[in-house]
Amino acid sequence: MSPILSKVTISPDKTLRDALELINSQALQVALVIDHNQHLLGVITDGDIRRGLLNNLSLDAIVTQVMNTNPRTAAPSTSKKKLLQLMQQHSILSIPLVKDNILVGLETLKSAQQQTHYANPVLIMAGGFGTRLKPLTDRCPKPMLKVGDKPLLEIALFNFIQAGFTNFYISTHYMPEQIQQHFGDGSQWNINITYVHEDTPLGTGGAVGLLPKSIPQLPTIVMNGDILTKVDFQLLLKFHDDNNADATMCVREYDYQIPYGVISGTGSRITGMIEKPIQRFFVNAGIYVINQEIIKSVAANTYIDMPTLLEQKIADEGHVLMFPIHEYWLDIGQMDDFKQAQADICAIGFEQ
Questions:
Q1: Residue 266 half-sphere exposure toward CB, CA atoms < 13 A
Q2: Which domains, and CATH codes, for the chain?
Q3: Which has the higher per-residue pLDDT, 82 or 197?
Q4: Averaged pLDDT for residues 211-225
Q5: pTM tops 0.90
Q6: Which residues lie below 8 Å from residue 96, measured CB to CB, with a gap of 6+?
Q7: E-strand spans in 45-155?
């Protein structure tokens, strides 16, 4: 087996967690499921895993539960021109090369490896007081607290830059001068930064009402400024666009173990007992994509939280979706979170 194939193949007894580690460690964005005879059993992409999570599968589920068992393949003799045409036609990034059902190669879409640039606006909300991080925030706004050797806001900004975004808006309120002095207009990173200042706190959604009318009429990514994450913003935007969503909320899986045995019954008769069951929920991850129609619905200087804004759209029968994230994510809201971020920053690989 070639070195490239050995890096993207996985056995059918592995878990979604194993597949994610493989996909995230390689640039090919695919995992090929093979048996011990090198027969191709299926293909797994990031999207397959996210759909599995939405269907209540855990990361410990077996890869065979989400893999595409009928992937598009080609013979090794297929010309590169034809392979590229197939990938572009079907919007896929790679095609396994199969002979007699045995995996012998993998052709990738070379153009996908080139940097893509997005004109979509990105709004990072950086106006909070950071009260729960006192005394660190007595003289420093929370987004400017250093994680490793960089301010949290700079790490977030650089993750977007790496994904190809260049059009940024930063909402400020508490100690705005420190943020503006550090980032300026963004020219040092070849990006554009515009500041929108909240004279009074406007909630997690009110800042969108301060965005200028001249912004590109494209879906806008909105993120809380106290989040440390490796979310794939390109995939997030693609999910939003492909599903014609009005708004998309990133969600995280959250497990809660009830510390007691749970008893079910009919009247006084016990019908079942479960010892310390685990309940699984999706929780708001503080990252959103919203269309311009929603932005225009928020009047300037109006207090509103983002969940309330999306609830209004849902009430209007809008198409509001959730995007499950499995990548690293940490909401730095308390001192323990801040300490955790310091421990994670090098291990997770936030390169700058």
A1: 1
A2: 3-113 (3.10.580.10), 122-348 (3.90.550.10)
A3: 197
A4: 94
A5: no
A6: 32, 40, 43, 71, 73, 74, 103, 105, 106
A7: 94-99, 102-108, 122-125, 146-147, 150-151
